[in-house]
Design a protein that fits this description.
The chain is an alpha/beta fold. It folds into 4 domains: 89 residues, FAD/NAD(P)-binding domain (3-Layer(bba) Sandwich); 58 residues, FAD/NAD(P)-binding domain (3-Layer(bba) Sandwich); 69 residues, 2-Layer Sandwich (Enolase-like, domain 1), CATH 3.30.390; 54 residues, Arc Repressor Mutant, subunit A (Orthogonal Bundle). The chain is built from 8 helices and 17 strands. A 5-stranded antiparallel beta sheet has the order 11-12-15-14-13. Strands 3-2-1-7 form a 4-stranded parallel beta sheet, covered by helices on one side. Strands 4-5-6 form a 3-stranded antiparallel beta sheet, with no helix packed on it.
Length: 329
């Protein structure tokens, strides 16, 4: 199988296919994998990881033509190389469909332009998710859509104190046996106000990098271990001054809690058993359960499943603080 696109989805598909012994090849039009989410060294380590899994990658190339008549038998690349295959998957990202919005008179650029309350130039029309363009940025992640939806809901209920300020870009690669994620800025500008804190062991493909600006964390790359993901996310989103904490940025030494039961959250490796333990400890709120366990704090796609587990467990649990009824003969 040929996968066109060396981003998150293309790489995850290629690695998953190799796990079931299907040959997979990735065609990447740029010179490195996940070029928007990783720096050059991070991309190199990811390339080595994929090579170990048996995934072939061709860089700086594109499909010139598809071969075959009734069915695909191969592809020919612009470099002249021919690759035999029976399936081609295009994983090159999404483009917002704004034709209807533009024809309706809404202001559009790459997406539908929105203000701090996710309103378009027509105040009765709101836009959230991948189609919403806020200050020149499009956010194609679940967490951003949820944050935007909350702002809209509050505004429509009369709360104008809360307004949208953009979302933290998070990228978590979901490959069995590989820990890799990035948050915020991944490359340090050529400016003395920006600093890098780096730890690397190339032989073990262990790489951690933090980017700091004015004593605040603004970005990070974690490869080989992503235990600090939630902590870094909090530091970036809340603009917390690091002060003495910068000395411990890459030295947490925090051991990851093992996955118990069926895997629910692949971003932060949380199992159903981990969630049940938190519920038994007294957690009864959906958001609090996510925060305590880490489930749903990455891409957010597992939050409905976390909620279902919570509701089912609370329904099955005995009623608390209820005295047994006395029956006399």
């Amino acid at each position: 199988m040929v996968i066109v696109g060396g981003g998150l989805l293309g790489i995850e598909l290629a690695a998953s296919l190799r796990e079931i012994n299907v040959e997979s090849t990735v065609i990447q039009r740029t010179s490195r994998l996940m070029n928007r989410q990783l720096d050059p060294l991070g991309s190199q380590l990811l390339q080595e990881e994929l090579a170990d899994k048996g995934v072939d990658v061709y860089y700086n190339d594109e499909i010139e033509r598809f071969l075959g008549t009734a069915a695909i038998t191969g592809i020919k690349l612009k470099s002249g190389l021919t690759i035999h295959c029976t399936t081609v998957v295009i994983a090159i990202g999404t483009t917002p469909n704004i034709e209807i919005a533009r024809e309706s008179g809404l202001e559009c650029k790459r997406g539908v332009v929105v203000n701090d309350y996710l309103q378009t130039n027509d105040p009765s029309v709101f836009a959230i998710g991948e189609i919403a363009e806020f200050k020149g940025s499009l956010y194609g992640i679940t967490a951003a859509a949820e944050q935007q939806a909350e702002i809209v809901a509050r505004y429509m209920n009369g709360d104008i104190a809360q307004f949208y300020q953009g979302s933290l870009l998070m990228n978590i690669l979901k490959i069995h046996g590989t820990d890799l994620c990035s948050l915020g800025e991944v490359e340090c500008p050529d400016d003395p106000a920006y600093e890098e804190v780096v730890f690397i062991d190339k032989a073990k493909r262990y790489y951690k990098k933090c980017i700091i600006h004015n004593d605040r964390l603004i970005g990070a790359i974690l490869i080989g271990d992503k235990n600090e993901f939630l902590e870094y996310r909090s530091l970036i989103e809340n603009c917390i001054e690091l002060s003495e904490k910068r000395l411990q940025l890459l030295r947490s030494g925090k051991a990851a809690e093992p996955v118990i039961g069926k895997l629910v959250c692949s971003c932060n490796n949380v199992g159903e058993g981990n969630l049940l333990n938190k519920i038994q400890e007294g957690c009864k709120d959906h958001l609090q359960l996510c925060q305590l366990s880490g489930a749903g704090m990455g891409c957010g796609s597992c939050r409905p499943e976390v909620k279902a587990i919570l509701e089912k467990t609370l329904e099955l649990s005995p009623v608390e603080n209820k005295e047994p009824r006395q029956i006399s003969a």
